[in-house]
Amino acid sequence: MLTDEAKLNEIIEHWKRDSSYLIEMLQDVQAHYRYIPHPLARRLAEELDVPVNRIFHIATFYKGFTLEPRGKFPIAVCTGTACHVKGGTRILENILRDLGVEREGQVSADGLFSVESVRCVGCCGLAPVVTVGGDVYGQTSSVKISRILERVRKAEQAH
Predict the structure, then answer these.
(1) Which domains are assigned to the chain?
(2) What is the DSSP string of the chain?
(3) Among 106, 24, 32, residue whose Cα is nearest residue 62
């Protein structure tokens, strides 16, 4: 496995040390680490000769970036109108409780999951909708989601 230093060097070289590709570099960092670690953000700023506050501005402005670690299988619970009416908020609360986390964005103890609410997934006819690791589940319930998360855990343990 590559060290943090080696992985960051690989990303920088892939984008030819061109700061105009800063967002793409941050996407690559996040894809590898599941978040943007502060030390790597600072090092990226040094390597590209850009102000570190520019990197943190981008990382906090765009919802697609996070400065906090995320689970291997991020969970997004739709709380838009259709999903809210059909219990999306209740499902979110139950997932947080079942994972043993206090707030959205926090990683479960096993490192597999983090959960957040989203305003719309774009499939209101399937409300309530939850995504787990990018897979979309419609007409869900707390019980269905618990079963899905258990299947994911078992599959991960088998690897």
Answers:
(1) 4-61 (no CATH), 73-158 (3.40.30.10)
(2) ---HHHHHHHHHHHTTT-GGGHHHHHHHHHHHHSS--HHHHHHHHHHHT--HHHHHHHHHHSTT--SS---SEEEEEE-SHHHHHTTHHHHHHHHHHHHT-SSTTPBPTTSSEEEEEES--S-GGG-S-EEETTEEE-S--HHHHHHHHHHHHHHHHH-
(3) 24
Give the number of residues written for the chain.
Answer: 159
Cβ neighbours of residue 2 closer than 8 Å, sequence gap 6 or more: 10
The per-residue pLDDT for range 69-113, each reduced to its tens digit, is: 999 999 999 999 999 999 999 999 999 999 999 999 999 999 999
Question: What is the distance between the alpha carbons of residues 72 and 110, in angstroms, rounded to a whole number?
Answer: 10
Q: Is the pTM of this model over 0.85?
A: no
Residue labelled with tokens 């618990």: 146
Residue 96: what pLDDT? 97
How open is the CA angle 13-35-100, to the nearest 5 degrees? 160
Q: Tell which residue, 38, 102, 100, 104, has the closest CA to residue 74.
A: 104
